[in-house]
Every structure is written in structure tokens, then in C-alpha cells.
Amino acid sequence: MKTTPPQRPARDDTAPVRPVRLTAGPLLLAVSVLLVVMLLGMTIGPAGLPVRGVLVELVGHVPGVDVAGGLDEQDTAVLWELRVPRVVLGMMVGGMLAIAGAGYQGVFRNPLADPYLLGVAAGAGLGATFAIVSGTDRAFVPLFAFTGGLAGVAATYALGRSAGGRSVNSLILAGVAVSAFFAAIQTYVNQRNSDSLREVYGWILGRLLTAGWDEVLTILPYVAVATAVIFGHRRLLDVLSVGQDEAGSLGVPAARVRLLVVLAATLGTAAAVAVSGLIGFVGIVVPHIVRMLTGTSYRIILPLSALLGAAFLVAADLAARTLISPGELPVGVLTAFIGAPFFTLVLRSTRRSW
């Protein structure tokens, strides 16, 4: 008599993602990578600084620690007035873009989502262009860019709600429309002010130029608030990964979570873009690499994205200022060289899994 083999229970794809905790191994590895890249960023440059002297100088600034034998007066000024602020700024911008990218990918459930999806880049670019062509003091360019970035996202939300409510597709399409409209205005302004074209494109291509700690202190409050909000929703992002309807059945207000995460990511991205220009692909490349290596839980993706995003941009900036020394490449060009091929691979892989 023919018997039927027992059937395995069907897999429930709507079950919530099992919480995963970040273990010490990946965390220590990411921290180690960041520390090595930071040290390289502080020591390598037109004025090379000795590794031992830099380490002694850094340790000497730890409260309660008194060591001698660091750097001379000139090298100390180079370290604390040029190298350290630039490295710290790169860490903040890279980490913020990576966190914002992970947040966007979580709420939109799409690995191709990035921090510029809803018009931040187009708005910031237009704001910076207006500031540059109008002859405004360079110190106010970040303010114009920040305001433009927020205006771009506000326009996207307004258009998305008028066209189809708050659905994901409506917001994405509205972001495409707003970005195209702002880009058209920016192109027109550039053509009418061709004498400022070089400076405008220099800002658009992205750079990490600091004149001290001003840029770091400018974006610090926005990055801190945005990071705290996104990290505070990391467990809810895990729940959203099962789908909006399923998350609602579990008591998670999907629309409110999406709004808060998007607003926080937008705030942090606008602040980062305001001082660094448009540095692309960090928000796609870093979170997706973390996801491929460690899994899909945002309790792991977000902290590791912050650390590796910071390391990635500091390393890219180091390469940008050494590859053609004494000249300097825009850091956005290097991130595009790395990110564009990776974006293609991600696009191909989405046909098989996400």
C-alpha cells in the first residue's frame, strides 16, 4: 500500500522577525576598522605626522593622563586644527548617511532606497546654488543647503498626500517629481550665472573641507537627534519588515513609524549634506553590505552601519586627498566609483531576494 510522506508545515512568511542581538565579535571588528581608518586619516597627508606622536598626543588629551613625547607645536596645530576636525566630520557625515539609508530601506522595504530618495539632495543642491550665485558669504551656504533639503522633503510629502495619500508608492513618485523640478530650476540658475558654475559643481560633487571645528559643531545637534530617533525605532523597523498590514495587526502604527523615521533621516541627511555637499551611495552601499553579512535585523544593521559608514567615508576622503596629491579629488567622485557598480549588483540581486 502506497503511503504518503508526512508534509512539513508551511512556512509562515508573515511571522515577525525574531529579535537578534548584536554580539561582541562584529561590534569589535567594526570598531577596530574605524579606529585604524581614523589613525590613518590623522597621520597621512601633505604634512605627514608620525603614528607614535599622534597616539601620544591623543592619549595626552584623555582626562587624568599625562604623557610626554608627542608632537612639536607645528604638528600639534596641524593635528588638532586640520586633521582631527576633518576626520570627525567624515565620521559624522558617513555614519549619518549610512544610518539614514538603513532607515529609508527599512520603512520602504527596498534595498535601493537611499537618504536622497525624497528630494533632500535636489533641495539642498538648489539651496546651495542660490547661495553661491547670489554672492552670499560662504559661511551661509550650509544654511541655505539645509533649508533647501528640508523644503524638498516637505514638497514631496505635500505632493504625495495630494496625489494619493501617504502610501509608499505615492511618496516615492512624488520624490522623483520634486527632484526633477528642483534640478530643472538649478540648471536654469546655473546657466544664467555661468561664472559661478565651477564653485557650484565643486559643492555638488561633495567634499570634506574644514576650517576647524565649526562644521562639526554645526551639524552635531541634528545628527545626534536624528540618530537617537532612528535607533529608538530599530525594533519597530524589524516589525515593519513583515509588511504594513501585518505590522498593523501586531499593534505597530506603521504610518507613524514611517513618518518619524523619514523625518529623522531627512533632518540628519540635510545637516550632513549642508556641510559636505552631495556624497552619494554611502546610504546604499554600507547598510546593504551589513545586511548581507549579518542578517536583516535592524538591531544589528543600524549600529554597524553607523560605524562602517563612518569608516567608509573617512577612508574615501583619505584616498581623495592623496591619490593626486598635492591636488584633491572630490570625495563624492570616489564614492560614486565604488557605489555605482555595487548599486548594479544590488539591483540584479533584488530579482532573487529581498
From TrEMBL:
Q: Which residues cross the membrane?
A: 27-49, 87-104, 116-133, 139-159, 171-189, 259-286, 298-323, 329-347
**Protein name as it appears in the record:** Iron complex transport system permease protein
Give Gene Ontology CC terms: plasma membrane
Looking at the keywords, is Protein biosynthesis present?
no
Q: Which GO terms describe its molecular function?
A: transmembrane transporter activity
Q: Name one GO biological process term.
A: siderophore-iron import into cell
Tell me which species this is from: Haloactinopolyspora alba
Q: Which Gene3D superfamilies match?
A: ABC transporter involved in vitamin B12 uptake, BtuC
